[in-house]
Amino acid sequence: MSISRSIGVDELNKILSRFPELSKDWLLYGGGDMLKHRTQSEDNCERTKGNDNNSSPSVINNSHDEKFRSERKEIDETVELIGRENALISRHIAKKSKLINQFCTLMNAMLKNAGK
Question: Can you say how many angstroms the Cα of residue 112 is from the centroid of all Cα atoms in its chain?
Fold first, then answer.
């Protein structure tokens, strides 16, 4: 189910107009990058719109974007590590299950021979 069907087009347009840096594809489908990729000319244009206290929206957004990218990279690395550890654990479980099955087979054979 897409988000456009669950909250409606009007709400989506409000979100996109309030947060223009959000990627429409990410918001609608959950795919791709969350933030739009800005061109150099867009960044330069934003910098010229700065206010008196030298904290233009682009500087704030760039700082926020960099923090987001850093956190996203850390999350991606953690997810990758968890995936590798999960695969390793799965292999260990498979080996242990095989050993348990071999042990049970051996025990059954011993019990069968002891009963003769």
Answer: 54
* Chain segment 62-98, per-residue pLDDT in tens: 777 888 888 889 999 999 999 999 999 999 999 999 9
Dump pLDDT digits (tens) for 41-62: 455 555 444 444 444 555 556 7
Contact 34, 64 (CB under 8 A): no
Measured between alpha carbons, how far is 42 from 65 in angstroms, rounded to an integer?
14
> In the beta sheet, which residues pair with residue 22?
35
% residues pLDDT > 90 (the chain): 31
What span, in angstroms and rounded, lies between the C-alpha atoms of 15 and 24?
Answer: 10
* Distance between CA atoms of residues 29 and 16, nearest Å: 14
CA–CA–CA angle 40, 42, 43 (5° rounding): 65
Enter the tokens of residue 66.
């960099």
